[in-house]
UniProtKB/TrEMBL annotation:
InterPro entries: Metallo-B-lactamas, NDM-1-like, RibonucZ/Hydroxyglut_hydro. Pfam families: Lactamase_B (PF00753). Coiled coil: none annotated. SMART domains: Lactamase_B (SM00849). The lineage of its organism: Bacteria, Pseudomonadati, Pseudomonadota, Alphaproteobacteria, Hyphomicrobiales. Keywords: Hydrolase. The keyword Cell cycle does not apply. Residues 24-216 form the Metallo-beta-lactamase domain. This is Glyoxylase-like metal-dependent hydrolase (Beta-lactamase superfamily II). The keyword Hydrolase applies. One of its GO terms (molecular function) is hydrolase activity.
């Protein structure tokens, strides 16, 4: 689904547009002019569905060159290994995300999520091979894209957002750091920290961007910065950002 020039939503689950498997997060794809760049991979249960969405939009899955992970949670990273196997793409993430994947499921809360019924009992996570690490503040040039990694922990220990610039346009890929209307996810995992999340949101308030691309729910084509500002307004009033409420479907 094309949402801006050379910018596509290619996966989205029940808490989004239902393009692909219900467990998938929003996965954002950019055509760099020299290959395709994907942010997050979904839960790995509907790779064919992702490829179908790409094909419907005139994109060739074999042109996928790079995958950036926002964090290790299964709905964002579990599809990476199969994408590697089928396209040969390279996977990039933070050093901490890579370390958590090495440690196994308890390190990125997949065990408790499965126990809580978020994932089926037979859900199997296959770790991708990480081809390169990207550090906070580092900027990579890929084709006509400039991609800056921004550490935004709080939702999880390892969370990173990405500021993607092309010419005079900037899109902020926020993963689960912040959503439409300035909302966040409150969750009972060991590494969720509302105070750390608040500091990350303040940091995103320093970014100049127009397009907001969150990990679930609505995206914003114009005026994306307003949604971060809405959360910061709550923080300035000594309140926490409002929770996003996903409806069980």
């Amino acid at each position: 689904m094309r949402i801006a020039p050379a910018t596509y939503l290619v996966a989205s689950g029940a808490q989004g547009c239902s393009l692909t498997h219900d467990l998938d997060c929003n996965c954002w794809l950019f055509d760099s002019g020299e290959g395709l760049v994907l942010f997050d991979t979904g839960a790995g249960l509907d790779t064919d569905g992702i490829f179908s969405v790409m094909t419907e939009n005139g994109l060739t899955p074999d042109d996928l060159q790079f995958v950036f992970l926002t964090h290790a949670h299964g709905d964002h990273s579990a599809g990476a290994r199969e994408l590697q196997r089928r396209t040969g793409c390279k996977v990039l993430c933070s050093r901490l995300t890579s370390s958590l994947l090495d440690e196994g499921e308890p390190a990125f809360s997949l065990d408790v999520a499965r126990a809580a019924g978020v994932y089926p009992d037979d859900f199997v996570y296959t770790r991708p091979s990480v081809d390169a690490l990207i550090a906070d503040g580092e900027t990579l040039a890929i084709g006509d894209l400039s991609i800056e990694a921004i550490a935004t922990p709080g939702h999880s220990l390892d969370h990173h957002s990405y500021l993607v610039r092309r010419n005079d346009t900037a899109a902020l890929v926020t993963g689960d750091a912040i959503f439409h209307s300035g909302r966040i996810i409150y969750q009972g995992t060991y590494d969720f920290d509302i105070r750390v999340s608040a500091e990350s949101i303040r940091r995103l308030g320093n970014c100049d961007f127009e397009i907001l691309l969150p990990g679930h729910g609505f995206f914003v084509r114009h005026g994306g910065r307003r949604h971060v500002d809405a959360a910061i307004l709550h923080l300035e009033k000594l309140m926490t950002p409002r929770p996003i409420e996903f409806i069980a479907i």
